[in-house]
Design goal:
single chain; 3% strand
């Protein structure tokens, strides 16, 4: 599965019909907050993948398909904070479930799929290469 950047289309698939209507109505004035909210959610997902250390990261701004729902639930929660009436309980529960999923990734209990063309896991250590020292006649002088 590919790593992709969360989009407004992904977010709209996560929102309820009521939330989507509120979002569309709120877009009339200032700048659209959705790109920033999606970027922040993607960054949080990537930080948890990095913390887990068991999966290589995809290109900047992307998340694995298996964490796209979590990223969109986080962004949807932040978006709903802007609406009148506060955040609905079901949206709060979805955010909490997304954070639980990300904690499992960070703890290594859940390993997302690697990005296309990457190995199955991220490097977890440092490779040390030592050249053998050969002792010859020139080096033995004076011993």
């Amino acid at each position: 599965m590919a790593w992709t950047a969360p989009s407004e289309t992904d977010l709209l698939a996560t929102l309820s019909a009521r939330e989507a209507d509120l979002y569309r109505q709120s877009r009339g004035g200032g700048p659209d907050p959705v790109p920033a909210l999606l970027a922040r959610a993607a960054g949080l997902c990537r930080a948890h993948v990095r913390a887990g250390g068991k999966c290589a990261l995809g290109p900047d701004g992307t998340v694995p398909a298996s964490l796209m729902g979590a990223a969109c639930d986080l962004a949807a929660f932040d978006l709903c904070k802007r609406f009148p009436g506060g955040v609905p309980d079901d949206r709060r529960a979805a955010r909490d479930a997304a954070l639980d999923t990300l904690r499992a990734v960070a703890e290594g209990r859940l390993v997302p799929e690697p990005p296309d063309g990457a190995e199955g896991s991220a490097p977890t250590g440092v490779l040390v290469i030592r050249k053998p020292r050969r002792l010859g006649e020139a080096m033995e002088t004076g011993l």
